[in-house]
Amino acid sequence: MAKKKYIQNIKMTIQKIFVVILWLIALIFFILGTFNIIFANKVLPNIYFGTKPLSGLTKEQLSNEIETQIKFLSAEPILIKIENKNLVLNPIDIDFTLNKEDFINEIYGFGRNNRLIETINSQLRLIVKSQRFPHKSYYSKEKLNKFIENNFTEFLIESQNASFALTNGKLEIVPEKIGRTINKDILISEIEKQLISQKRTPVVLITEIQEPKVYTSGLIQAQKTVEKYLSSDLELISKNEKFVINKDIIFSWLHFYASRVQVVNGKGYVLNVSPSSEEIITYLESMAKQIDQEAVNARLAVSNGKATVFQPSHDGYVLDKEKTASDIIVSLEEPNPRKVEMTIRIKKADISDDNIGKLGINELV
Q1: Is the pLDDT of residue 105 over 50?
Q2: Mean pLDDT over all residues of the chain?
Q3: Quick one: three-class SS letters along 47-62?
Q4: I need a labelling partner for 310 at 20 to 30 A (CA). Which of 98, 157, 285, 289 fits?
Q5: CA geometry: angle 38, 41, 43, nearest 5 deg
Q6: 309 by DSSP, 3-state: which?
Q7: Is the pLDDT of residue 146 over 60?
Q8: In 253-280, which positions are buried (b, 16+ CB within 10 angstroms) versus exposed (e)?
Q9: Helical (H) or strand (E) element with 332
Q10: For the segment 220-237, what is each residue's pLDDT rounded down to a tens digit?
Q11: Is the Cβ–Cβ distance between 311 and 298 less than 8 Å?
Q12: Which neighbouring-strand residues pair with 85?
């Protein structure tokens, strides 16, 4: 008996829920129906252009209102404040523009789609959430970036790690530089908001300090390493050539970078230094122009079936820059004297004196 009563209660509850759902559906359709009756040939409720309500406007009224708003937005300057500096951005300077006809059609047509499901969905959204136009600003990103570049350079200063310089053969410490910057993405985002806002408020920017990774306290070990690399000149030797590499060139090969080791009694990280194989290879490329030689094929001129002119072949030479750079790095780690024999590869001629007979010529004159 109790079980039967329990089942009946469940059925009654389901019936009540079903009735409530039907009433809710009926209410929604009643509201949407009212929308479409009251706002026939008018902009639907809860639609704005910026902060300006457009609900209930006819298409002609909407056209006039949009034109007024576009003129205002295009003419009203945007004020940007940063520290003690005030900057003015005129929308026309970045080609700000809004197409009136596009907005009229988009705003007037919102909630009136060709598909019933989309129409219902759009109108239901209007009940709980307003729709604001335009959704985005239309301007030249290139010109806005140029405006930022021209006016915010003093606030875009890269930090610099403490390092070294070689002046007149003397190693000097170059102190770190504190940088500062602004969040460019936030600046652009705020400008975009102001471009489509009827109530223009100043864009306030805060500069951010940009700390270097390496301070002078992180140079102690690196200084000893650099002095070791610069302790003497370096000789590059080949069969017929000898090149003396002085300290200035060796210093230009060094790569300085922040390690992951923090300074114990100081700020920042320890500076690491090592010879750069890329820089050394770049230097060797200019040297290779004096060393490299193309192989020459054996050549002869044939007249009346006989060879009348004969040019002997000779091999070419190519500086192996990668191998030589590797040997230089090893040498820089060693004490004096520093001498590196350059690795030069022989490039054989395609047609040598030995295989010229294969051309079918057996007599040389």
Answers
A1: yes
A2: 83
A3: EEECCEECCCCCHHHH
A4: 289
A5: 80
A6: strand
A7: yes
A8: bbebebbeeebeeebbbbbbbebbbeeb
A9: helix 321-332
A10: 999 999 999 999 899 998
A11: yes
A12: 82
pLDDT in tens, 284-339: 998 888 887 887 776 766 666 655 446 677 778 888 999 999 999 999 988 777 88
3-state secondary structure of 324: helix
The Cα 20–Cα 17 span in angstroms is 5
Find the radius of gyration of the CA atoms of the chain: 40
CA dist 307 and 299 (Å) reads: 10
Residue closest to 214 by CA, chosen among 180, 250, 173: 173
DSSP structural state of residue 293: B
Q: Strand pairing of 78-82 and 85-89?
A: antiparallel
Full 3-state SS string of 131-181: EEECCCCCCCHHHHHHHHHHHCHHHCECCECCEEEEECCEEEEECCECEEE
Distances in Å between the Cα of 314 and the Cα atoms of 295, 337, 365 are 6, 35, 19
Question: Average pLDDT of 181-200?
Answer: 89
Question: What are 161-187's pLDDT values in tens digits?
Answer: 999 999 998 999 999 999 999 999 999
Q: Are 216 and 162 in contact (CB under 8 A)?
A: yes
E strands within the chain?
47-49, 52-53, 78-82, 85-89, 131-133, 163-167, 170-174, 179-181, 203-205, 208-210, 234-237, 242-245, 254-262, 269-275, 299-303, 306-311, 316-319, 339-341, 344-347
Instruction: Taking each helix axis as running N to C, give the angle between helix 277-291 and helix 321-332, from 0 to 180 degrees, rounded to the nearest 10.
Output: 120
CB-based burial, 309-329: b 16+ in 10 Å, e otherwise: eeeebbeebbbebeebbbbbb
* Whether the model pTM is above 0.70: no
**Residue 133 identity:** F
pLDDT computed for residue 280 by the predictor: 95
Structure tokens at 63: 């056209």
